[in-house]
Design a protein that fits this description.
Largest sheet: 7 strands, mixed
CATH architecture of the largest domain: 2-Layer Sandwich
CATH class of the largest domain: Alpha Beta
Oligomer: single chain
Structural class: alpha+beta
Helix content: 25-40%
Bound molecules: cytidine-5'-monophosphate
Number of domains: 2
Number of helices: 9
């Protein structure tokens, strides 16, 4: 094995997110419609001495060792391969962290694909998917990309008819969410509002993007504290008033996104959202 491989690591958006219940293993059974988009990190992977794993990024607060999900993925790769290996990863982050956009998961998936390229395709699809789940619940979807229904922990994937390419505006509010805290809040109450997943799937199948966008919903929006709920509500209103077909929070937040009928309304929405949040990204579903 020699040289290195560079791959894009695309963010994911939750067109819907439903929590079905808590499992005996501490995880939750989920039902989510997932969509990858053009907002992406860049991941370069180079072979290193056995046992030497390092993930360096352009963000000083991201750990470079075993706490980094990219390192977990590389270790899982060699555990599955059944022989010692090592990898140095250089990750150019563009996807915001703690956003619900699967940035770390996307990096981990890119690491698995890059290592498998460097190792001449030594792992088959099933082994790669198992290594992905060992790294994190959203990593299997990130391996696959596109549009998919994700169930179980997030790893039971059904590919769906692709959403037509659509302009997306992604906003990063000033607050952060704690994923375990949000799950605990959802556990402790009957969710008042649930996504119409069946209706969303039917709209996708029919290529009805307005029907999809209208049904976008995330149960975690119902579990936010007052301040966060207000910020999400304001951002969604700003996006919708600029012509978004629908808007929702992604994953366990705090990113809020809207789907737009054209670039001009997406640009307008970016301008309207900028004063309300930390960062705004214009992207496309793909
Ligand atoms: O698998 P991952 O490391 O991404 O999960 C992070 C945390 O999110 C878990 O420790 C768990 O608290 C929660 N989680 C869950 N059920 C899932 C996925 C994640 O409870 N299906």
């Amino acid at each position: 094995m020699s040289g290195g491989v560079t791959l894009p690591a695309r963010a994911k958006l939750n067109l819907s997110l439903d929590v079905l219940g808590k499992r005996a293993d501490g995880f939750h059974d989920l039902r989510m419609v997932m969509q990858s988009c053009s907002l992406a990190d860049e991941v370069r992977v180079e072979p290193a001495a056995p046992g030497d794993f390092l993930a360096q990024t352009n963000r000083s607060y991201i750990p470079s060792g075993d706490k980094n999900v990219a390192v977990k993925a590389a270790r899982a790769y060699y555990a599955a391969l059944g022989r010692p290996g090592g990898a140095h990863m250089r990750i150019t982050k563009r996807i915001p962290v703690c956003a619900g956009l699967g940035g770390g998961s996307a990096d981990a998936a890119a690491v698995l694909l890059a290592l498998n390229e460097l190792e001449g395709g030594a792992l088959d699809g099933d082994a790669l998917r198992a290594a992905a789940l060992a790294a994190g619940s959203d990593v299997p979807f990130c391996l696959m990309g596109g549009t998919a229904l994700a169930e179980g922990r997030g790893e039971v994937l059904t590919p769906l008819k692709a959403l037509p390419e659509t302009d997306v505006v992604i906003c990063m509010p000033y607050f952060n969410c704690s994923t375990p805290e949000l799950f605990a809040r959802v556990d402790s109450r009957r969710s008042r509002c649930r996504p119409d997943t069946a209706g969303l799937l039917a709209a996708l199948e029919a290529g009805d993007i307005q029907g999809v966008a209208r049904r976008m919903y995330n149960v975690f929006e119902d579990a936010l504290d007052k301040r966060a709920a207000k910020a999400v509500g304001e951002l969604k209103s700003a996006l919708l008033s600029c012509g978004a077909l629908g808007a929702a929070m992604s994953g366990s937040g705090s990113a809020v996104f809207g789907l737009f009928p054209d670039r001009a309304s997406a640009e307008r929405a970016r301008g309207a959202a900028e004063p309300l949040c930390r960062e705004v990204f214009l992207a496309r579903t793909e």
